[in-house]
Amino acid sequence: MKLLPARPALRPAGRPKRPAAPRPPAFSERPEDRAALLRLVSLLLQYPDPELLAARDELSRAAAALPGSPSRDALVAFTAWYAEAEPMPLARAYVETFDLRRRSSLYLTFYLHGDTRRRGMALLTLKQRYRVAGLTPPEGELPDYLPVVCEFAALAGPGTGEAPLRQHRAGLELIRAALRTAGSSYSLVLDALCAALPDLSAAGQAEVADLAQAGPPAEDVGLAPFGPPLNGMEFRS
Question: What percentage of the chain exceeds 70 in pLDDT?
Answer without folding.
Answer: 76
